[in-house]
Amino acid sequence: MPPPPRPAGRPANPVIPGFHPDPSVCRVGDDYYLACSSFEYFPGVPLFHSRDLVHWTQIGNVLDRPEQLRLPAATPSSAGIYAPTLRHHDGRFHLIVTHCGEGGGNLIVTATDPAGPWSDPVRAPGVPGIDPDLVWEEDGTCWCTVAGVAQVRIDAGTGQTYGAPRPLWSGRPGAKAPEAPHLYRIGAYWYLLIAEGGTERGHAVSIARSRTPTGPFEPCPANPVLTHRGTDHPVQNTGHADLVQGPDGSWWMVLLGVRPGGGTPGWHVLGRETFLTPVTWVDDWPVVGDVSPDLPELPWPLSPGPVEARRDDFECAELRPSWISLRDRPAAHCTTGERPGWLTLRARGGSLDAPDVVFTGRRQQHLACRARVLADPSQGRGGLAVRLDERHHYAIEASGTEVRVLARVGPLSTVVATRPVPAGPLVLTVTITPAPPDAQGPCAGPDVVSLGVEDPGGAFTALAALDGRYLSTEVAGGFTGRVIGMYAAHGAVHFDWFDYEPLDG
Ligand code: 6LW
C-alpha cells in the first residue's frame, strides 16, 4: 500500500534526504548550521543553513579547495571525509573532521561566515581515530573527544594537544563501536552523547553525565536513549546524533537513519539520511521522541523550503554546491568554461569502474525520481549513471552512434542493452520508482532503476529496468548512498542541462 498523503504544510522527515550522514548542528542566534560527512567526494563536508530546523538549504561545502582537501585516486570508496563536528566559539565557526586515508588525520578549519571561505586546515596529529568533537569550558579550555571514547585537551587554533588521550566512557558494556561523541554543558551537568552498536540495524544513542567535562561519567539508566533495532519502524539504523535547542528553547536531536525498502533483509538505497526528533528532559536526562516520517506540529513559523531549481542549465561559472565529483575536480576535466552554457567533462582514461573516473553528480534524495540530461557525445563517450561505488553502478552511455545500458554489480559487468542513435545531442534518462505493490514479498527488491533515451524528436525508448537492490548499501557495503551524475569515459562529453525531478508526490 502506498503511504497516506502527508497533511499539507506538515514538516517531514528526513529533514535532509539522501546521503547526508553524521549530522552535526550548531545554533548562532536565529540561525542553524549543519554539516555532514562526504567520504570520497569533492568538495567535502556539505554545509546547510536553516531557521526552523526543518527546511535546510545547502550554502556551501566546507572543504572546497584542493589546498584544504586532497583525496588521492587511491582513496577507496567510503574512505575520505568522516563525521564532522560543527561548533561556534569566540565569534568563529570551528569544524573538526577526520580525513581517513593517505595524507589524512584529524583537522580543524574555521570561518566567520559558514558559507565560506573556510580556513586552510590545521592538523591535530595528537588526536587519534575518528569522530572528533570540540567543546570549550568557560575559561577557554578546549576538549577534544573522539570515538572510543577518549578525550584530550587541545588548542583548537593550532591543533596542539596536551598529554595522551584519556578513556572517558565507552557506553553500555558489550555494545560495539562506541563513537560519534558530543560533549555539552547543559544546566548543572556535562553530557556525553555517543552512538554505539555500529551504524547498521543495531545502531543506538546512549548518554552519560558528569559535573565536569572530564568525568567521571554516570550512564543514563534508560540507555540506549534511542534505537530502532528489532522494530518494524520505517526508519532504521538510528544513531550518530547531535543536540540543539529550537527557536523556543525546546530541545531537538539531529541524527542519521535509513529507509530500507523491499523484502528481507531490507535494502536502503539513499544512504544514511539526516532526521530530526524532539527531546524532552526528565530528571535531568533526555527523553528522545519518535523519529517519525511526520514531525509534530512545530510551535514556530516554518520558512519556505529550499528553492533549488529542478534544472541546472550550467549557465554559471561556479557549479552549485550540491554537485559533487569523485575525489577531485580539476578544471581541465570538469568545466563550464569550455563551451558556454554546457558542462564539459573530459575523461582521463577511467571508466566508472576506475577510481579516477571523471564523474560529477548529485545525491539521489527521493525514493522516486527522474533524472534527465541533454548530452553531446560527438567528441567522446559518456553518459548518465546511478553510482554507489566503483563496483556498483548502472549507466546509460552514449557514443556518437549508439547508446548502451551498462551494469556493474561486484565482479560482474554487463552490457544490458544497445541501440543505434543518430549523431548529435540526445536526452538520456534514469527513472527510479519503488517496487510496485504487486511485486512485494520476502525477496522483493527496494526499487526499479529504468534507463532510456529520447531521440531528437522527443520519442522515448526504455532500454532497461534493473532491480535497485544491487545499488544498495546492504549489497555494496560502505557508508555512502546513491549519487546520480554525468561522466566521461573517453574524450570529452558536453552536457547542456541536467534535470532532477522528485516523483514522490
Ligand atoms: C562515522 C561513525 C559512523 O565516522 O559511521 O554512524 C562512520 N556512524 O561515527 C562513517 O560515517
What topology emerges from the helices and strands here?
Elements: E1 24-28, E2 31-35, E3 41-42, E4 44-50, E5 57-63, E6 80-89, E7 92-100, E8 105-111, E9 122-123, E10 133-136, E11 142-146, E12 150-154, E13 161-167, E14 179-186, E15 189-196, E16 204-210, E17 218-219, E18 226-227, E19 236-245, E20 251-258, E21 273-282, E22 285-288, E23 311-312, E24 324-326, E25 334-335, E26 343-346, E27 358-363, E28 369-376, E29 380-389, E30 392-398, E31 402-409, E32 412-420, E33 426-434, E34 447-454, E35 460-467, H1 473-476, E36 483-502
Antiparallel strand pairs: 1-2, 2-4, 3-24, 4-5, 6-7, 7-8, 8-9, 10-11, 11-12, 12-13, 14-15, 15-16, 16-17, 16-18, 19-20, 20-21, 21-22, 23-36, 24-27, 25-26, 26-36, 27-36, 28-33, 28-36, 29-30, 29-36, 30-31, 31-32, 33-34, 34-35
The structure holds (Z)-L-Arabinonhydroximo-1,4-lactone.
How would you describe what is shown here?
With 505 residues, this protein is mostly beta strands. The chain has 2 domains: 24-288, Tachylectin-2, Chain A; 311-502, Jelly Rolls. Helix content is 1%, strand content 47%. The protein has 1 helix and 36 strands. The strands form 6 sheets. It has a 15-stranded antiparallel β-sheet that branches. Strands 14, 15, 16, 17 and 18 form a 5-stranded antiparallel β-sheet that branches. Strands 1-2-4-5 form a 4-stranded antiparallel β-sheet, with no helix packed on it. Strand 12 (150-154) and strand 13 form a beta hairpin. The two termini are 15 Å apart. The model is unreliable at 1-8 (pLDDT under 50). (Z)-L-Arabinonhydroximo-1,4-lactone binds at residues 21-22, 37, 82-83, 130-131, 179-180, 195, 199, 239-240, 256, 479.
